[in-house]
Sequence to fold (126 residues):
Amino acid sequence: MLLKRVFDAIRFSNVNDKFEATRQELEDKIPVRQELERQRDELVKLSSQKDKAQLFRTMIKRHQDVMYRGLQVWREAVRYHKHTQQRIKLRIVNLHKQNLSKALFKWKEACDKKHMAKLAVMTEDL
Fold:
C-alpha cells in the first residue's frame, strides 16, 4: 500500500510538474499570441484600407476613361458639324451665285430682246 502511495505521489508530482510547466509556457506564450493577433488585426485593417484606396483609384481611372471617351465623341460630333456647316455654307454660296447668274442671264436676254425689237422697228421704219 505504501509502495502504491509512493508511486501515486510520484505520478501526481510528475503530472503536477507537467501541468505547472504547461501553465508557465502558456503564460509566456499568451502575450505573444495576443500581440500576434493584434498585429494580424492591424494588417487586416491596413489591407482593407489599401483595398479601398486601390478600388477608389480604379474607380477614378474608369471615370476618367468614360469622361475621355465622352470628350472624344463630342470632339468627333463637333468636327462632323463643323465640316457639315462648312459644306452647307459653300452650297448656299454656290446656289446664290447660280441664282445671280440666272438673273443676269435673264436680264441680258430681256435687254437683247428690247434692243432687237428696237432694231426691228427701225428696220421697218427704214
Observations:
- The first helix runs from residue 2 to 125.
- The chain has a mean pLDDT of 91.
